[in-house]
Design a protein that fits this description.
By secondary structure, the protein is an alpha/beta fold. It has two domains: 124 residues, Rossmann fold; 129 residues, Rossmann fold. A six-stranded mixed sheet has the order 2-1-3-5-6-4. It has a six-stranded parallel sheet with strand order 9-8-7-10-11-12, with helices on both faces. Helix 1 crosses helix 8 and helix 4 packs across helix 5. The chain is globular. It starts with a strand and ends with a helix. Bound molecules: 2'-monophosphoadenosine-5'-diphosphate. 2'-monophosphoadenosine-5'-diphosphate binds next to loops. The site of 2'-monophosphoadenosine-5'-diphosphate has 13 residues, from loops.
Length: 261
């Protein structure tokens, strides 16, 4: 039986095992997908298990998407460009790091029929998933990417790799078509992002990478002001779908039944 894991810390909340095991069963694959809480100190050992075929694939989540890179033999061009790995597999005796967050984000916009081309995007946050979002937006030919993060150095670090982004001071607002919350603010029910949306109008898209709760205070505020909103559920599902394809060479179905389960 083939074995797959999602690794990270915290990992308890991860819905990846439920989703992958659903598709594994649906496609009659002899495999199991589990979760493992892991810190950087455990990375060498788990990558070694892939090398020895004891584990067949790994999804990587917070906070390991960057720190896993030195332990891998190769990166796919996309993972290399995003400097972030969320999917690991073995091919021709080598352990590869790939990135399906970029594709997952792109697919999530397609899912809601939102064309971002030539749009101005304002990203909040500079954590693990942000480089993938920047890359996806760039590939989709947005006209401008603004980014704001509480810790400015982290935003400046991103600008070193993606020079076309423009940094906005934390707490300030700029003119945008889409605003993306990629911070962890919103996971707790009393979390608030203190921005003044008083003058933004009501023709924007509020996108939150968080999907649990399904409507963060950030999305509730966007909705109340009359804007479109979208949570991170479809990005999560599509990144998993692309990882499944890499490992099993089957593109599993995203059905209403799945979405409602
Ligand atoms: P990591 O930074 O380890 O990759 P993450 O969960 O991917 O972790 O990212 C957390 C993001 O949420 C960061 O952008 C973080 O801002 P800092 O870089 O300043 O830490 C942001 N964040 C978390 N708590 C926050 C808060 N109370 N106010 C503002 N931003 C916050």
């Amino acid at each position: 039986m083939k074995k797959y894991f999602v690794i990270g810390n915290p990992i308890d909340h991860s819905l990846s095992p439920k989703l992958h095991n659903y598709w594994i069963k649906e496609n009659n694959i002899n495999a199991v997908y589990d979760k493992k809480q892991l810190n950087e100190s455990g990375l060498a050992e788990i990558v070694e298990e892939i090398k020895k075929d004891k584990i067949n694939g790994i999804n990587v989540t917070i906070p390991l998407k960057k720190s896993v890179i030195p332990f891998l033999d190769e990166l796919t061009p996309l993972a290399s460009e995003a400097r972030s790995v969320n999917t690991i597999f073995k091919k021709d005796g080598k352990v590869f790091g790939d990135n399906t967050d970029v594709g997952g984000f792109k697919q999530s916009l397609k899912h809601i029929n939102y064309d971002v081309k030539n749009k101005k995007v304002f990203i909040l946050g500079a954590g693990g998933v942000v480089s993938s979002i920047i890359l996806a937006l760039r590939k989709l030919e947005v006209s401008k990417i603004y980014l704001s993060n509480r810790t400015k150095e982290k935003a400046e670090q991103l600008k070193k790799n993606y020079s076309y982004i423009e940094i906005i001071d934390w707490g300030e607002i700029t003119n945008f078509d889409i605003i993306i919350n990629a911070t962890s603010l919103g996971l707790k029910s009393d979390d608030q992002i203190k921005l003044d949306f008083g003058k933004i109008g009501n023709d924007k898209l509020f996108y939150d990478v968080i999907y649990n709760p399904s409507k963060t205070n950030f999305l509730l505020k966007g909705e109340k002001l009359g804007n479109k909103i979208n949570n991170g559920k479809m990005m999560f599902i599509y990144q998993a779908q692309l990882a499944f394809k890499i490992w099993h060479n089957i593109l599993p179905k995203v059905t209403d039944k799945l979405l409602n389960s």
